[in-house]
Automatic annotation (TrEMBL), chains A, B:
GO molecular function, a single term: manganese ion binding
UniProt name for this protein: 2-succinyl-5-enolpyruvyl-6-hydroxy-3-cyclohexene-1-carboxylate synthase
Record's catalysed reaction(s): isochorismate + 2-oxoglutarate + H(+) = 5-enolpyruvoyl-6-hydroxy-2-succinyl-cyclohex-3-ene-1-carboxylate + CO2
Protein function: Catalyzes the thiamine diphosphate-dependent decarboxylation of 2-oxoglutarate and the subsequent addition of the resulting succinic semialdehyde-thiamine pyrophosphate anion to isochorismate to yield 2-succinyl-5-enolpyruvyl-6-hydroxy-3-cyclohexene-1-carboxylate (SEPHCHC).
InterPro entries in UniProt: DHS-like_NAD/FAD-binding_dom, MenaQ_synth_MenD, MenD_middle, THDP-binding, Thiamin_PyroP_enz_TPP-bd_dom, TPP_enzyme_TPP-bd
All copies of domain Thiamine pyrophosphate enzyme N-terminal TPP-binding, residue ranges: 14-124
Organism listed in the record: Ornithinibacillus hominis
Record-stated family: Belongs to the TPP enzyme family. MenD subfamily.
Keywords carried by this UniProt record: Magnesium, Manganese, Menaquinone biosynthesis, Metal-binding, Thiamine pyrophosphate, Transferase
Chain ranges of the Menaquinone biosynthesis protein MenD middle domain: 201-404
UniProt remark on cofactor binding: Binds 1 thiamine pyrophosphate per subunit.
GO biological process, one term: menaquinone biosynthetic process
Cofactor(s) needed for function: Mg(2+); Mn(2+); thiamine diphosphate
UniProt xrefs under Pfam families: TPP_enzyme_C (PF02775), TPP_enzyme_M_2 (PF16582), TPP_enzyme_N (PF02776)
Length: 581, 581
């Protein structure tokens, strides 16, 4: 068979099998060497292609879309530094367990490492940051090689998704000419063909005898704490809240745990822990007998100190598959089991219901109430950063996603996101906590069709303004709330802030740019509210609009620092006065 | 000694030794974990620090500065995806042999791979793309560890620069607290201390007997061609032009060879080869006995075909140190020797001067003249892409640098940059030929104080608009000529262009954005000339201005394709008529 037919059938079978394996979206960055993949994806009737020019943004767009849909998303780029631009998002996908398929085009072997243009060594380009790497064979269309193409497609899509999800990298050597011939008969294989390979993945469950013993052990303690860190399993909220009620336990619920909001019972959920665990006396008073954690470590540094302070406490960390996420260094029992099944199995073995309103739980609830009341009344009309985030989480629509930037944004959401019946999906790039790729991540999530609000600071916004092009290009519905304190606001909270000589240049790093001009360039609606009421109105009208809306709230870094300090000390004062006396 | 003193002395000795090893510039991206490095660099009296927020841009800024100065430039960033954002520029630095030091801050060992925030595996993060990687020890200030810090600094700076230059990566584990104490006595070591280690690098020279034989061999041939591909050694121009005159040889001089312009003799320099070697008849008529190449493969695809057509020709490729840059696959003799010494050694052994105006050389010169005359007269007043580049290379100031983007920009410079006495430094990212990082590369080159003009297309400009922030921040003098054909102009020249269904979406990729708004945001002067005369005036006034100037020339992709086609066929017609008949 000739070159074009080899190329066409090989890639068509590959792409078709990806589709049959559940892949619905591909993010393509333009290039010549990647023509066979790009054109075949565009030709395939079941796969939606997204063209994103900046490969760094493209990979983050794919990441956001995959986070939102929990399906693998493919990335296609040409050879050279194009692929290297995927690296930050690949790292984040690895760290936060997101299924991505990086499909990189490459020169064929005879044009590698000989000074040919745009040829770099792409073998294992992403090192240990991918779950697997495979160098694809040159295109051939004999039956065994079409089978190979199909099995590799199915493997890649399923490897990315099974166990701890993560990125997979396939590198494709292509010889010229590069243009497939879509007029070939049976281009996609036989009509109505079943998937070539199918994956059935079981869940880890511990034995009945273990669960019985474990339940008995927990029941022997008076003071337990359930912790829900960042995690994405929706069903956990219901399961863990039943468990908490049955055992009479408080749930420390990170904003990214998906547990703070929803239709499940939220009686035992403690949202205010970050405020009251800042105080050492409180941490000592709340010393638990055990901690049972689902998901990653919470964002809260106060919680980190709480664990650090109690090295002699039984700590149980539940992981669905594997992984070591215990940064404190305390002794730990790792429970490798599906979190939802584990909750229901534990509930079944619970010998008695301990107490719905035991003293231990009451203490947590009481402190939490103090925090909630204090936060509810801090509004002083002016549009502080805290007020902006508080307003946002209050009026964000039901059945929508909130994509949260790192540094200040996630910490403010931790403070201000209270339990409610709203169905919110909380997304963030907390694998490596970078400020890069945030706009594209949010826009990628919005590409799923789900309404998305992206909350981030000015440095994150600047870092990935290129991501706005895709929102414009596809007229995606996204509201971006930029809290612009002209620099790195979080550094004001760190010891570096006391160094007058170097602080502003090295850490404060003001941008001094007017984002409105960029937003105008990308065809977005722009709002610049200066009061909480104006912000509310701006957000509400942005939600009614189609396309890109950017709401910029301009604040002051120093004011923000003092505002937060005052908030924490006010809460501390009230806690010490009303609860700890 | 206490933690702070250990930290301070260790990093101060490291930074001071970098300075003593010739490092003058560091590019710092803000972060917390990198505080010891960032603050110590900022404190050091001899090193200039540049704060660049987007780490991808930061690394390209360092690349451009290192390309311009030929000195190593250090990059400092925090842990996490910050470091991953360096990857594209690290790849380019590896491919195009540019000395960079990536100094990445990391969590200490006890906080790695345990789910601690912003902690990723940074060991060998850049794989084989760095010349060496070293995981630094934790800071200590006993004498042996200060010696270690100094030797590692000196090694890194010198490794980056010796042999084929390239990037080096050092990863620094830091424990909190992170703030050094600059009030310590003898912070930078003893006053007037000599460099701790000094490197003396020799040059490769072949033996006299080899050179005698080689000169005799070349003299036995009638038809030789000297090729100067992309290379950065300034002295080559003089040496190779003397050699060419002595042996009566044409010099095929790539625009990036640094040989086209300057005070040296340019009689034998052929700039028009890309035009006339497009024709197969011409390639056959110009079949050489041997090719002697310095530098990398030229940009010209016509030259590639010329080599491909003549597999039976003696091909000699000169490399200063090592490397295999022969993408055609023809038989080759590699000469590992310093190019300038090699030229003068060869000249010394040249038995006789063959002929200044032999028939072989005359034939090349004649064709070249046809091309030059044709190009000189194509101006039709309208501002085509060709006209824009022609105007730019005509009026670009003496003693300045031209940083050239990939795709169309470098090809148009290949066509329109003619020999002249101007001292121009030609820079480009031709290691991997990416369209990423171009703005930052140009701005980095301008940070050296050398006047820089950056020529690039709209996609390259868009890809790294973030790079403009640094030009604004430091008020750097740079003129950027953006040829905006609203998309990927080079694809119109490829076979993909004939695919009506997918071409515009996958390859044409129009941006449809008004750059003027971004330029306004970054405080640049903006020009939008619509005639060649207006362009000339715009460039001239941009050169008189301080700071950032962007000149945007709006063109049409299809017109540009036809314009170039017409140019090539016009030249071909004249060559066939006047020279080949």
């Amino acid at each position: 068979m000739n070159h074009i037919e080899n190329l066409t059938r090989y890639i068509a079978n590959f792409v078709d099998e990806l589709s049959k394996s559940g892949l619905t979206d591909v993010v393509i960055s333009p290039g010549s060497r990647s023509t066979p993949l790009a054109m075949t994806f565009a030709e395939h009737p079941e796969i939606k292609e997204w063209i994103v020019l900046d490969e760094r943004s493209a990979a983050y767009f794919g990441l956001g879309l995959a986070k939102q849909t929990k399906r693998p998303v493919a990335l296609v780029c040409s050879s050279g530094t194009a692929a290297a631009n995927y690296f930050p998002a690949i790292v984040e996908a690895h760290q936060s367990r997101v299924p991505l398929l990086a499909l990189t085009a490459d020169r064929p072997h005879e044009l590698r490492d000989v000074g040919a243009p745009q040829a770099i060594d792409q073998i294992k380009l992403f090192g240990d940051y991918v779950k697997s790497f495979h160098e694809m064979a040159l295109p051939e269309s004999i039956p065994s090689m079409l089978q190979y193409a199909r099995t590799r497609a199915a493997r890649a899509a399923n490897e990315a998704l099974t166990g701890n999800a993560g990125p997979v990298h396939l590198n494709f050597p292509f010889r010229e000419p590069l243009i497939p011939d879509f007029s070939l008969e049976n281009l996609w294989g036989e009509p109505l063909q079943e998937p070539y390979t199918i994956w059935h993945e079981g869940q880890k469950r511990l034995s009945d005898s273990f669960m019985k013993q474990f339940a008995a052990k927990l029941s022997s303690f008076k003071k337990g704490v359930i912790v829900c860190g960042p995690q994405v399993k929706e069903e956990l909220a219901e399961a863990v809240s039943l468990l908490a009620e049955s055992f009479g336990l408080p749930i420390i619920a990170d904003p990214l745990s998906q547990v703070r909001t929803g239709e499940h019972a939220t009686n035992n959920i403690i949202e205010g822990y970050d405020a009251f665990l800042r105080n050492e006396k409180v941490r000592n008073a709340l010393k638990p007998d055990y901690i049972l954690r689902f998901g990653a470590m919470p964002v809260s540094k106060a919680y980190l100190f709480y664990v650090k302070d109690h090295i002699d406490v039984n700590q149980y960390v539940v992981e669905h598959h594997e992984g070591y996420r215990e940064p404190v260094g305390n002794p730990t029992e790792f429970i490798l089991a599906d979190s939802v099944s584990f909750c229901s199995d534990l509930l079944e073995e619970a010998p008695t219901i301990i107490a719905e309103d035991n003293e231990w739980l009451a203490q947590w609830k009481q402190m939490n109430e103090v925090v909630k009341k204090h936060i509810a009344k801090v509004a002083d009309g002016s549009l502080t950063e805290g007020e902006a985030v508080k307003t946002l989480v209050e009026i964000i629509p039901d059945n929508s996603s909130l994509y949260v930037g790192n540094s200040m944004a996630i910490r403010d959401v931790d403070t201000f996101l209270m339990t409610s019946k709203k169905k919110l999906t909380l997304l963030a790039n907390r694998g490596a906590n970078g400020i890069d790729g945030m706009v594209s991540s949010g826009v990628g999530a919005a590409a799923s069709g789900q309404p998305v609000t992206l909350l981030l600071g000015d440095l994150s916004f600047y870092h990935d303004m290129n991501g706005l092009l895709t929102a414009k290009h596809y007229n995606l519905n996204i509201t971006i709330l930029v809290v612009n304190n002209n620099g790195g606001g979080i550094f004001s909270f760190l010891p570096q802030a006391s160094n007058e000589k170097h602080f502003e240049a090295l850490f404060g790093t003001p941008l001094h740019i007017e984002f409105q001009k960029a937003i105008d360039m990308y065809g977005g609606s722009y709002y610049n509210p200066t009061t909480a009421m104006e912000l509310k109105e701006a957000l509400q009208s942005s939600y009614k609009e189609k396309g890109l809306s950017v709401v910029e709230v301009k604040t002051d870094r120093t004011d923000n620092f003092h505002w937060h300090k005052k908030l924490w000390s006010g809460i501390e004062h009230e806690i010490l006065k009303t609860v700890m006396e």
